[in-house]
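dumping these here so i dont lose them again. two proteins, back to back, each one seq then structure tokens. dont judge the mess
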Amino acid sequence: MKGKLILEDGAVYTGELLDSAAKTVGEVVFTTTMTGYQESLTDPSFCGQILTMTYPLIGNYGAAEQFMQARRSFVRGFVIGELCDAPNNWQAEESLAAFLSARKIPCLYNVDTRAVTRHIRSAGTMKGVIVPETTDEREIRALCAEKLPRNVVETVTTTETYTLETAQEHAPHIVAMDFGVKRSILRNINRIGAKVTVVPAHTRAEEVLALRPDGIFLSNGPGDPTDVPEIVEEIQKLAGKKPIFGICLGHQLLALAFGAKTYKMKFGHRGGNQPVKNLRTGKVHISAQNHGYAVDPDSLAGTPLAVTHMNVNDDTVEGLRHTQLPIFSVQYHPEAAPGPDDNMYLFDEFWNLMKGV
């Protein structure tokens, strides 16, 4: 059945609906990744958003449980070019269409995603709706008027504490605060030989320290970091107690905890091709990113934070380090490995901080 994507500013893009009754509303964003569509669909950082893939051929290798990044998908909708109905890969367990249908993810395909992307790059991210072509104007207006949730961290975080064990003797113990953590990040931390205890986002600092960690990890996650000031307060209480490593939303929350500010970007960084310069070594690494907010570099003056990494494309802040305490963070996702392993050294740096090296 014919369907359409209607943006907040009135722009309309037509296509085919996978589910003829699908109707949804969300913030429309795009990602430039050429592969990893299932990882993107299940990345909690896309919570509440309608995800557009710029690469036109989607579904070629199907879907499988091992590529899930969370317990479920939190996207509001999926907009793509060609939807492959005959996947060919030895790991495939189902087609992408079956994956989307089973999880009731509204999908609009046969869309000119290049046009959608160019529009968002020009006008910025905005609210949009996916509806069948026959939907009347009154229903569309009602859908457009829906308010999007703000504190989406509560939606994606774990509801209970759990642990990833390791066979390594004398392994460091890391407490990971789950703001919407990807499973691949946890696996990489666990793989370096650390025991990882994952706790809900609003776990108090006293409870984190009671677990006797050697290090504290602040995860990625969705939304505006200023929407969770109570988490920022707990991070302030943790500062100086144990080494801390933050990624993505965790990076932004750390910046707020030490007095810096964040701002909403025009269309964000979402993709696997962002060049990041390490200011300490001068090397440029290719990074995977998924965020719509960034740290304001001008607000860092007077704080104990120093910039360690910058985005080569637009000079946004990509990494911070505390000048006195064993605390550092990056805006990107080192475990996604588009380099392919340019940024894995960050996990080693965290290990060394915990070992006091």
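---- next one ----
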Amino acid sequence: MSTLNDLPLPRALDRAIEAELRRIIDMKTKPPGSLGRLESLALQMGLIQRTVKPRIERPAMIVFAGDHGIAKEGVSSYPQEVTAQMVANFLSGGAAINALSRSVGMTLEVVDAGVATPLLFPFPIDHGYERLSLGLGTRNFAQEPAMSREIALEGIARGAARVRHHASLGTNVIGFGEMGIANTSAAACLMSRLCDLPIDECVGRGTGLDDRGLAHKRDVLGRALALHRNEGDAIDTLATFGGFEIAMITGAYLAAACAGMTILVDGFIATSALLVAAKIAPDVLDYCVFAHASNETGHRRMLAHFDAAPLLQLYLRLGEGTGAALALPILRAAVAFVDEMASFESAGVSNKAD
């Protein structure tokens, strides 16, 4: 893949059944609109699935892991080796996303998008892991672009391919998580450039920087943005500042929308990938449900950029897809009331007076 023409591009939702969906929702035994966001979610999922009886089938979470050369600038409070260690933790079932995915019934897959440290697993891996590495971490974008445009496009292609695999298995609801030391630096720079915001409004503490570390991070990222002034389109911006995992999530969004999936959007890093995807194909947003408002500085500004109302506000800032997993039960409730709740006619309940 080497051109924009090769990218999977979603179409806007077909709204042919919207009036019928609204009628079904409004005729349930309740005052119109009284189930609030559940009603708009049911409508959105019905339109995405092109049915008046939306379902949730084989919900999946894909966690993409990759390292960032910008870590060499001391912008994280954790060493880069933690990325590989956390991948091992995911695969042994011990991370937060493992517990939360199990609790809500999501299939979990971990993808090595470009982890720098060799992955050594002291246990057998027979499923739930894919090695699609684009390299041993990106280059240091404080000195040079993180990757070439061609590599960014290849990352998009590989992320899209994983989603198409899950679509072939029947998945129609999907979320994307990430792991990568220093990836909040990449996300902050993507946000600054794509949302046209000063870096001070985008950069946060990430894995827990103190005030001195935060000031250093702002300085490093400010200089990096000044170094790279003319990246061109969104793909070039991704190549300049992004990570291999962010590139793959970008492609995953596009392919999920093309496949007619409902997409649960996680926090700061995952939303930075959506910034890129939405620049490429704005219609991808029709398929997105913003799961939560992260406690990472900048995420709420990202949400405002999309005019998005997140389902949850739990002060999370872990990543991994944890916020997206926690939102799945709300989607289950939305489809349940459409499927299981009686209508005024079927229950013999009088509707409001004309």
